[in-house]
Amino acid sequence: MDGVLQLGLSRSPIRRNTPLTVKATCDSAQADDQVLLRVDTINKQYADQVVLADVAFDIQHGEIIGIIGPNGAGKTTLLEALAGILPAETNDVYWHGKPLPPSRRREAIFYLPDGVRPYQDQPVTRVLSLFASVYRRSADEVAVIVESVGLKPVLHKRVHSLSKGYGRRLMLALGCSRRSRYFSWTNR
Asked: pTM of the predicted model, to two decimals?
């Protein structure tokens, strides 16, 4: 993995519902002009409970970032605020150096929450075809996506009958059907 965002890893025990600081721990010597996504500040709280405090990091072109932390650390909250789904007190995100307000994030970011499976009663092929038509992907492009995520063995099955692993592969394929440059995926 190119980089890891560590949520509050310390030597002392982490108490539940304690705000955690995020620090990027990746050795990237790339120049600022290679920054795809810059998070300057994300702060989120529920009532008087601070969940995210001054979260800031950069993601370079081609970089893969993982977010690691204990349950309740704010991983999903961070991804939802980043995707513009969840409002935050401060949410300063830049795409290629330009401000990216929450209302425009879906143009650049595809967020895939865990456990979501659309069109449960439909065959995998039909769901893939629907997304391909919505995002104007050719049959050849869909075939490459299916091959790359390993969905071929279950194309004939209905979505509700997929194992958890194949369900995730389907969702990854649907995410790849979009032409987003940044893909965000939560795994609870």
From this structure: 0.66
